[in-house]
Amino acid sequence: ASFGSEDVAASEKAGRVGAVFSSVAPSYDLMNDLMSAGLHRLWKGWLVEQLAPFPGMHHLDVAGGTGDVATRVARDILAQSPDPEAEQGSVVVCDINPDMLAEGQRRLDPSAPEAALMEWMTADAEALPLQDDSVDGYTVAFGVRNMTNIDAALREAHRVLRPGGQFLCLEFSPRTNPALQRLYDAYSHHVIPQIGRVVANDEQSYKYLVESIRRFPDPDLFRDMIWDAGFRRVRAQSLTGGIVYLHSGFKS
Ligand code: SAM
After folding, report:
1. CA 186–ligand 1 middle distance (angstroms)
2. Is 81 helix (H, G, I), strand (E, B) or coil?
3. What is the ipTM of this complex?
4. All structural domains of the chain with their residue ranges
5. Quick one: residue 138, left, alpha or beta (phi over 0 = left, psi -120 to 50 = alpha)?
6. How far apart are CA 63 and CA 65, in angstroms?
7. Which one of 12, 17, 27, 241 has the fewest CB atoms closer than 10 angstroms to its CB?
8. Model's pTM, two decimal places?
9. 5-251: which CATH topology?
């Protein structure tokens, strides 16, 4: 088969992303806490708050990695359910990398109540093996920037959500507010790869993760991409001085 240069670039990116996440899987959750000084917990908490899970909800968390967001959604569904006998719902953790999912499954206490709601699915966000209009909510946290074709992933999100269903995405922004920018640059280019080297013995993977943030579209452009995929009531909320954005929209 002959590949155009775009295909080669795309398959190189997919291969690189696969290798990076297989390498970081065992240390991923610890690194998240160290690199964000625990802030990722706050950001994910806000994501779940805006999602507003409800009893019986069928939710999909894409690029779900070790299941951190999905676990929070499942716990929140249970917290909203007054009747333990009623159908509780489901939360599917979808990721393209089986090593990340395996790490999450290994860590999950099977007797924890939320474990009963969770399902693990190896799949590509750009071609989801799910029916049209089949989920009530769709989340993706810090995963979109690693995807090869972001427009295709957004179209898939729109296809599988039911009308009225909410799309929510947490992602780093390539630029913060001007007061923070120099500190943010120094932190991400020097401190994060060093934490990667010392804690995970893997400086290169963390350098790649920082670079992928720099290449991600600006929040305004990404908001337009979400609109173009068919979502409405599209919003981009800046969190923590613009380090992270919470993007949202509804399928109309
Ligand atoms: N959402 C998790 C969290 O916030 O802790 C994990 C985020 S991790 C930075 C990014 C994840 O995106 C990785 O597990 C990676 O395998 C996954 N990923 C990258 N490209 C993907 C794709 N096309 N489809 C599904 N998952 C993908």
Report:
1. 25
2. coil
3. 0.99
4. 5-251
5. beta
6. 6
7. 12
8. 0.92
9. Rossmann fold (3.40.50)
